[in-house]
Specification:
Subcellular location: Membrane
Number of strands: 14
GO biological process, one term: spore germination
Strand content: 25-35%
Number of domains: 2
Organism: Paenibacillus sp. SYP-B3998
Protein name: Ger(X)C family spore germination protein
Structural class: alpha/beta
Membrane topology: Lipid-anchor
Helix content: 25-40%
């Protein structure tokens, strides 16, 4: 009898549940979702879903509607889509810049946290312009738009052109007092372009944007050093001569190490950041004796990088935000002082002293002397 019961239980585990089975032809997968505000501050939601019907010539359907909430917009989608709308496979949520310029826009994404069938790994992107224009974009030389857009974001992230922020990580960053959130920024100008990173306030409101080079510097300060870090600079003290940039050089930073020391002195926080990196020279448009003058080029790189770090930190402190996450260090090492300013950390960080030291070692200049 025991063997019979054990065998019955084992067989039951192999049986596929089919109570709520639904054919894929009867489902409308919202792979791409857009959120906008029109000129009268009415919410506009747009959705792009793949079509699995063999008879359909267009394999993507999109719909844009005005609705009071995201959940209400799904009802309008169901009025026109032939399948039941679901967000469990969403790849990207596009948020228009007009939406992010308001406090607490993050609450619009409430359905994704309320419904367990929805995914939290969806990428969050700010569109510099109307998000629905991106949703309606139909390039003939690219794969399905949701797949193309997600690959575009991921590829840019591998080269540290942008940050990759999912819905789950955005929620964590929004609730965390020691760091402010940042998301990928996208622009449509005939084609889709990842322009860099949008930095947000503690309330989630858009503050300002940074381009690819400053995003790479931000990633280094965050100690997020995976992927590629290419930089191009003009050699200090070498003026340009002629048409071509014969004073420029490029390198790729590798094996980056970031160490941060935290202190509190004279009623303000102090952070000393030590950045070390080994670099590979990838381009040099001026003569240089690599055997005897390598140290000169290393010092040139250090000056450029330090200037870039200081400029970025100055912008961040002026905006009273902290996308670097220095508040996490303050809480960990100076908790007694952090505790009194945790609810206004952006303001406290704006008065902090941040010193960045850069050390560069050229590991390779290529096979050409």
């Amino acid at each position: 009898m025991k063997r019979f019961i054990i065998g019955l239980v084992a067989l039951s585990l192999l049986i596929t549940g089919c109570v709520d089975q639904i054919n894929i032809e009867d489902v409308s997968l919202s792979l791409l979702i857009g959120i906008d505000l029109d000129e009268n501050n009415n919410l506009i939601f747009s959705t792009s879903s793949p079509v699995f019907n063999k008879e359909a010539k267009i394999k993507e359907e999109e719909y844009t509607s005005q609705a009071t909430t995201m959940r209400k917009s799904r009802d309008k989608d169901d009025q026109t889509f032939i399948g039941l709308t679901t967000g469990g496979k969403a790849q990207v949520i596009l948020v228009g810049k007009r939406v992010m310029q308001h406090n607490n826009w993050f609450q619009l994404l409430e359905p994704f946290f309320r419904d367990a069938k929805n995914t939290l790994n969806v990428r969050i992107v700010m569109v510099d312009g109307p998000a629905y224009e991106v949703v309606q974009y139909a390039p003939k030389d690219k794969p399905r738009l949701p797949l193309y857009l997600s690959k575009l974001i991921d590829t840019a992230n591998r080269r540290n052109i942008n940050v990759k922020t999912t819905l789950e990580s955005l929620r964590r960053l929004t609730l965390e007092k020691g760091i402010t959130a940042s998301v990928t920024e996208l622009h449509k100008d005939g084609k889709l372009i990842v322009t860099g990173t949008a930095l947000l306030e503690e309330s989630g409101k858009y503050k300002f944007s940074i381009g690819p080079d400053e995003t790479r510097l931000l990633r280094i300060l965050q100690d997020e050093t995976k992927g590629e870090f290419p930089f191009t600079y003009k050699a200090i003290g070498k003026p340009k001569e002629g048409v071509f940039p014969n004073n420029a050089y490029s390198f790729s930073a590798q094996k980056i190490s970031v160490k941060t020391k935290t202190g509190f002195k004279e009623n303000k926080f102090k952070f000393d950041m030590d950045v070390k990196m080994r670099v590979v020279l990838t381009e040099r448009l001026f003569p240089l004796d690599v055997r005897t003058e390598a140290d000169k080029l290393e010092r040139d790189m250090e000056q450029h990088l330090k200037k870039g770090f200081n400029g970025l930190i100055s912008k961040i402190q002026g905006a009273k935000i902290d996308p670097i996450g220095m508040g996490l260090y303050a809480r960990a090492y100076e908790y007694s002082h952090w505790k009194s300013v945790q609810d206004k950390w952006g303001e406290a960080f704006s008065d902090a002293e941040v010193n960045v030291k850069v050390k560069v070692i050229i590991a390779s200049m290529g096979p050409t002397k």
